[in-house]
Amino acid sequence: MRANTWRAVVVFLAIVSLVSVMATTVFATGGPHQGTFTATTDACAGCHRAHTGTAAKLLKSTTQYALCTSCHDGTSADTKVTTGVYLGTSQGVQNAGLRGGGFEQAYMDTSASGNVTSGNITSKHTVGASAATAWGSGTTGNGETVALECGNCHNPHGNSNYRILRPKPTSLSGWSSLTAVNITAGLSDNYTITYDANNYRDLSAYSANVTNKMAEWCGQCHTRYKASPGSGSTDSGSSPFNYRHHTDTLSGECLACHVAHGTSASMSGNAAGPTWPDGSANATWQTGTEGQYSRLLTVDNRGVCLQCHSSSDLSQN
């Protein structure tokens, strides 16, 4: 083969290799949330309008929730956060439930029986709504009042963190003084639930840097929920959060009991009775009647307790 032919082959293979790397990078980093764009990217137009923005930062939607769900409602992104479903195939399951639940409905096994169903949410992080109390935030009282949006927790332009979480949430008044918590995404992280006896407590779906740092990350807002072992029998001296279930060193930490977006878990009997931390009765939920105090829990009633504490353990105490 002639030298110029060899050169042509080498150049061709180099181009193919470069294109393959670029394509892999684009898909691996999540489309428009990718941090590196091509010279002629169309990603910016997915969210911004240079001269006709309808919200600050030249956003094309009036609210962040409307902007984010213009893709994450199943029209463009596989992660359909409105109903809590991953539209692709994950772990061999088509249309699996998202571990974070959903903001309008959630596809969950709240009965811990392997029966996965879709249901309206009974509690959620109140994104895109009027200001609400961030229970347990701050150092005194019940918590700060905040109007929460998707961008308070997630970086829309992407980063290397788990689920593009910001190292410092921007929701609270003193957020700029917080200490950044970086939770680097791992190759083993899986964002959908598995339908077996472990249900949401299949912690093998998360890398250790997720399960060992989530309480620290959530604790940046919910300051007084973050608790060390022994906090259940030691008075914190900070009413109304005097005695608290420990979160630090707990297997899975906050993820052991709660979803991040919204849950469809139902509450009845004693589980429906607790008041809010300020002593007020259960309120009406934005999308219907809550009255259940489901508090983002993954299992109906207080079934999350038995995910760790067996019946035999409880009978001995």
Topology:
Layout lengths: L2 H26 L35 H5 L10 E2 L4 E6 L2 E5 L7 E4 L8 E4 L2 E2 L7 E2 L11 E2 L3 H4 L54 H4 L2 H5 L43 E2 L39 H6 L2 H5 L2
Antiparallel strand pairs: 1-2, 2-3, 4-5, 6-9, 7-8
Brief synopsis:
With 317 residues, the chain is α+β, with helices and mostly antiparallel strands. It is 17% helix and 9% strand. The strands form four sheets. It has a three-stranded antiparallel sheet, with no helix packed on it. A two-stranded antiparallel ribbon has the order 4-5. A two-stranded antiparallel ribbon has the order 6-9.
What does the model show?
With 317 residues, this protein is of the alpha+beta class. The strands form four sheets. The chain has a three-stranded antiparallel β-sheet, with no helix packed on it. A two-stranded antiparallel sheet has the order 4-5. The protein has a two-stranded antiparallel ribbon with strand order 6-9. It is globular and about 60 Å long. It starts with a helix and ends with a helix. Residues 3-30 and 284-291 have low confidence and may be disordered. The protein has helices at 3-28, 64-68, 150-153, 208-211, 214-218, 303-308, 311-315; strands at 79-80, 85-90, 93-97, 105-108, 117-120, 123-124, 132-133, 145-146, 262-263. A hairpin with a 4-residue loop joins strand 1 and strand 2.
Helix content estimate = 10-25%
Q: What is Rg?
A: 22 Å
Give the strand content: 5-15%
* Mean of all residue-level pLDDT scores: 80
The topology string of helices and strands comes to: HHEEEEEEEEHHHEHH
